[in-house]
Design a protein that fits this description.
43% of the residues are buried. Helix 9 (280-295) runs parallel beside helix 10 (317-337), helix 10 (317-337) packs across helix 11 (348-382) and helix 11 (348-382) crosses helix 14 (439-455). The protein is α/β, with parallel strands linked by helices and 475 residues long. It has helices at 3-43, 49-54, 74-82, 102-110, 152-162, 181-191, 226-249, 264-269, 280-295, 317-337, 348-382, 387-414, 422-434, 439-455; strands at residues 61-67, 89-96, 112-115, 128-134, 142-147, 167-171, 176-177, 196-206, 211-213, 216-219, 259-263, 299-311. Helices cover 52% and strands 16% of the residues. Strands 3-4-5-2-1-6-11-8-12-7 form a ten-stranded mixed β-sheet, with helices on both faces. Strands 9-10 form a two-stranded antiparallel ribbon.
Length: 475
């Protein structure tokens, strides 16, 4: 047997083995998530959230919303956050040294004035230039912090220092929350008396093409553009299946930076958000979990399947590429910071299952896919490709990916059914079919660029230009 044949066999059967293991994990995740979603929906069927909303005994929540050059949308988004029906609440907008008119628009829209305000700096941050509150009592929950630019992690740490409540909810300022979002997010902190709930998250959905009025989402529409539409499918698959299964295992490593709640005391004791990574949301969850594991204190990181938060997804390949590049760098940085946990039984499911899964199937997956494609091209040029084997493997992976997405669409229709028109369901199914040929290869390439940028020590966030909720999105 020639060395070429050995190389081809090693590549072919190695790729097959990796694919089978990956598919097995996804099958387990899909099936395991069903029980968690079903249990949650049965348990919450008769919950009266109005009692919690109006009660001063409800958990105190500080919403932290960092803003950088968000002038296009900031007034309407703050209005949306202020409209949330929750008694024990403060809203902290952190202007992270914006170069646009974000602060000026907030001052004008909410009649803000600079005040003296004691800040207990438990986490070191860039200097605060000023703190503003409204002259109008109707906006008494609003606090606007102006600070020197230091990045999202630094802005969130300033918010933690300024906050006065027991729980912090970190949210992207461009997000629109459902009216009962905080009520549902707060509920896990009250329910679990045996273990301390240190963090909880909910489903994030895509708001592109939806109708927004007065900072509120008034009508859900499936995005008209291809990229936001396929991201809608991706989010359904990731949140409704993936994170629900990991929540049931108590092995969740990530709560979306767009919307998540944290125990403020534990967040501070764990050190707050890390400035050294662009994946500060994932890194904080992992560090809080590691902190609790090392103290051997029973705890839970919870996740709920309700669509609680709506955000604008990238509508161009340029912005999408920057986002996925950053996500990749953040994942690798987090795994590197906490590499001590890799297959370490001291950290139980965190070290023996969650971390290895992220290492092999989130970090390595795009690298293996890219190298597989390069080797396939090379073998084809050299005439070494076993076409029957290749086509069989391609059909296996493609068919499973398509059916997995269709199952996610089915679960969405069976549970929360946000997209009720048959036409929209068919468009999601079509997106599931085309994803493998357009969207997924681009995401893989963006991840490869993220690996390269990390090796080059590039740590910038990249401009996330937003269209804002205007035109067809605004009524």
């Amino acid at each position: 047997m020639s060395w070429q044949s050995i190389l081809v066999d090693f590549f072919s059967y190695g790729l097959l083995a990796y694919s089978i293991v990956l598919i097995s994990f996804y099958l387990f995740i899909a099936l395991y998530s069903i029980g968690e979603v079903r249990t949650y929906m049965l348990k919450n069927r008769f919950t009266d959230y109005r009692l919690l909303a109006s009660s001063e005994q409800a958990p105190g929540i500080s919403i932290l919303a960092p803003a950088y050059n968000e002038g296009a949308n900031i007034v309407e988004n703050v209005r949306s956050l202020l409209s949330i029906h929750y008694a024990n609440l403060e809203l902290i907008i952190v202007n992270d040294g914006s170069k646009d008119d974000s602060l000026a628009k907030l001052i004008e829209a909410y009649d803000l004035c600079k005040i003296d305000y004691f800040v207990n700096e438990q986490i070191h941050t860039k200097p605060v230039r000023g703190i503003y509150k409204s002259k109008k009592s109707i906006f008494k929950k609003l606090i606007v912090v102006d600070k020197e630019n230091g990045g999202k992690a630094d802005a969130l740490n300033v918010g933690i220092n300024v906050s006065q409540k027991d729980y912090i909810v970190c949210i992207d300022v461009d997000c629109i929350l459902e009216q009962d979002a905080l009520l549902k997010l707060a509920k896990p902190f009250l329910e679990n008396t045996k273990k301390r709930v240190i963090a909880t998250g909910g489903v994030v959905r895509i708001a592109n093409s939806c109708e927004v009025k007065g900072g509120k989402l008034v009508k859900v529409n499936l995005p008209e553009s291809f990229l936001p539409r396929v991201q809608t499918l991706e989010y359904i698959r990731s949140f409704l299946l993936g994170r629900m299964a990991w929540s049931r295992l108590n092995g969740l490593l990530l709560i979306s930076g767009a919307f998540g709640a944290f125990d403020r005391e534990i967040a501070i004791k764990a050190g707050g958000y890390d400035h050294s990574t662009v994946g500060e949301d994932m890194e904080l969850v992992v560090r809080m979990r590691r902190y609790m594991e090392e103290l051997n204190v029973p705890y839970v990181v919870s996740f709920i399947p309700d669509p609680l938060c709506w955000t604008e997804a990238p509508a161009s390949f340029k912005i999408l590429g920057r986002q996925r590049n950053r996500w990749t760098r953040g994942t690798i940085e987090t795994l590197n910071i906490h590499k001590k946990m890799f297959f370490n039984p001291r950290y139980r499911i965190l070290g023996m299952l969650s971390y290895p899964y992220w290492f092999f199937f989130e970090f390595l997956s795009p690298i293996i896919e890219f190298l597989g494609f390069v080797l396939f091209i090379l073998f084809s040029i050299l005439g070494l490709t076993e076409w029957k084997f290749f086509l069989t493997l391609f059909l296996l992976v493609f068919s499973f990916g398509f059916l997995y997405s269709v199952f996610a669409i089915f679960m969405e229709a069976l549970t929360y059914n946000q997209y009720k028109r048959r036409k929209d369901i068919l468009r999601l199914v079509f997106a599931a079919f085309t994803e493998a040929f357009v969207f997924h290869p681009f995401v893989v390439w963006s991840a490869i660029k993220g690996n390269i940028d990390l090796l080059r020590k590039k740590n910038s966030w990249g401009e996330m230009t937003r269209a804002g909720f205007s035109g067809p999105n605004k009524k």
